[in-house]
Amino acid sequence: MKRLKGTNEEIARILAEEQVALTQQNITVEATVREIIQDVSQRGDEALREYTKAFDGIEITDFRLSETAIQSAYNTIEPDVLAALKHAAANIESYHKQQMETGFEDQPVDGVIRGQLVRPIERVGVYVPGGTAAYPSSVLMNVIPAKIAGVKEIIMITPPQQTFNPAILVAADLAGVDQIFQVGGAQGVAALAYGTQTIPKVDKITGPGNIYVATAKKEVFGQVGIDMIAGPSEIGVIADETANPAYVVADLLSQAEHDVLARAILVTNSEKLADAVEIELEKQLKQLPRENIARPSVENNGRIIIAKDKGSMFALMNLVAPEHLEIAMENAYDYLDQVENAGSIFLGHYTSEPIGDYYAGTNHVLPTTATSRFSSALGVYDFIKRIQYTQYSKAAIHEAEKDITTLAYSEGLQAHAKAIEIRKD
Amino acid sequence: MKRLKGTNEEIARILAEEQVALTQQNITVEATVREIIQDVSQRGDEALREYTKAFDGIEITDFRLSETAIQSAYNTIEPDVLAALKHAAANIESYHKQQMETGFEDQPVDGVIRGQLVRPIERVGVYVPGGTAAYPSSVLMNVIPAKIAGVKEIIMITPPQQTFNPAILVAADLAGVDQIFQVGGAQGVAALAYGTQTIPKVDKITGPGNIYVATAKKEVFGQVGIDMIAGPSEIGVIADETANPAYVVADLLSQAEHDVLARAILVTNSEKLADAVEIELEKQLKQLPRENIARPSVENNGRIIIAKDKGSMFALMNLVAPEHLEIAMENAYDYLDQVENAGSIFLGHYTSEPIGDYYAGTNHVLPTTATSRFSSALGVYDFIKRIQYTQYSKAAIHEAEKDITTLAYSEGLQAHAKAIEIRKD
């Protein structure tokens, strides 16, 4: 892992440069994706069938997955996996229920009512990748918050397979997906955004996917809402001399095994710990089945940042703004108020990050590449809308007339003023 | 205005087609904008000076607007405008304070703590257009919610002018802007996203602008957060036979005067009202100073939709999902529960939409082109982040071990499982 050491300003400059490089856009597939989207929006199912044959090598007559296929997945899923999914779903539900919002109303002066309604988004589409990146846990993480928000209809799409992973179908069913369609890629995203003869048009699309899926989501944004464009996974660990190097390394590697582009960043005020981590890293890497992914990941993107004191550890990690943040310190809870930017925080020596990936109930769909500076984990708040309302009585509007028309005239918008003045009579 | 009449399904189909046309992307300026952004991100202030000279025709040595310039605006602003801005600011503040969120924490089982922190975004950039589109009311609407959220630093940028509208500078000062820089266009957006020698890099950019500004915001999204890409203004009016046609028309025109692309849509169950509105429309249009804008707007984009009953009026308007929604009916408040999609609702015969533009305190930065299906008015919630946290004791992680490792192994992520298992010792 590359070691960074210096003043906070020097390290901050390097982190800022690295962050810009991370978010530079990949525009290579844009033209292809735009063509697919336009075609699907015009020709619907016919276009979908052609792209699915071309890209997935499968001829589909009916995109809709039958109720029988979903129910038979319960017969083939491993019982342990089924039990674990049920426990995880219960935890995700109990955590996210706390995010539910209600509206408000006030009457600031006589004759005036102001308020805010909270309404669920009506129909949501969830993209679930195929092949090895098909994670049942992600199905739960995307669907359960939507369900709690009160979304009326949840449509899932996933690329066609000869044999679907039963855990994916069971997770969808447990979480409350209403319909599943076997279609993927940019064509699947286009189908959700514009609707086809068989696939209903949705209001918002969530869920991860490859570069085609991510680019398609960006392109259809505006026509529908989208969640976020996720980058490679990241873990930041703040550790002092009390940390166990073996635990720290195991957690760094749990992110590094995802992807050669994943980032594992340790910030510590202890050079002794940094040295121990590097020795332990080599030891654990050799034992790892996915060493071929984790090794280039830590070698290219791994960082050990040496901070001069505890305050600097937090200041520098706030610049990293990691997706996952572990605080491997005694009394970690007491340092919560020093965290400004992070997707999800794991406190103390025993709260290993994979607890959050699968089990604790917090969401694992998180802002990457320093976007936790301005965005948050997927949550119930992503599946609702807030609608303002106002009511003025005749007396109240006359009371406010002078101020309103003064501003309207000063902005040169006479019809705005007129709409108030006409109500004098 | 074009009249639509038929079954709900027939009208729904037409509305869906119109909505797709509205959101089709304008990609003509993308290449230019990308070049400007890259140049500014690399050369900073030097590039800014060149673009400002080329596009605004002004040579700038110092982009920062002096404290003296801001204070002297108080001497030139009309006293009535100053008073109105102060009243509006107070209303905006009292409404938006109700949107403040707090975190939560629970202890679902022994040894487990889960929670959510709420943190303000650290630094926000607000874009304020120049020329005739410089609205002091928009400055208040963008800045006050950020301030309430607790944003530490608010940077405003606006294109350079020979003489700035004093109301813009006063509004910025009243609302709590920390620094103002005189730079606009895609180059200004790039400066906020990447930072230059004099302009600080921000975490999120809000505020309206022309096609260059909107495209630039879309391009830098990811590097920074953005609010929304606003389209032309819209008003939807639901009116029954109790509505006053003169009021309805005045309100339709208050949006139509904004822009030839603005949309004014009336949904009514009364053909008698529809006829009266068309007669009144011609009468009021002729008296309007901005007739040259409002007339093509209503002729091209105006719609009168005839609904067969009250339920259909709301069902069809929910498909329109208008930015502004007026309910011009007796007991309008009682119909709130029928609204699913709208940015801001104005209730009853006296609550004219311009009340919300300037005064009531609800936000006037609203989702357009049917995006209220999945998004909301600008609010305090746009200037905060929610950060999850979890703490598991040693006993609690052992309790959860089997479920977590079962899921990790089933997804083929061995390092995830290992990070849990290593904590046995």
From TrEMBL, chains A, B:
Zn(2+) binds at residues 255, 258, 357, 416. Pathway: Amino-acid biosynthesis; L-histidine biosynthesis; L-histidine from 5-phospho-alpha-D-ribose 1-diphosphate: step 9/9. Its cofactor is Zn(2+). GO terms for molecular function: histidinol dehydrogenase activity. Catalyzes the sequential NAD-dependent oxidations of L-histidinol to L-histidinaldehyde and then to L-histidine. NCBIfam families: hisD (TIGR00069). This is Histidinol dehydrogenase.
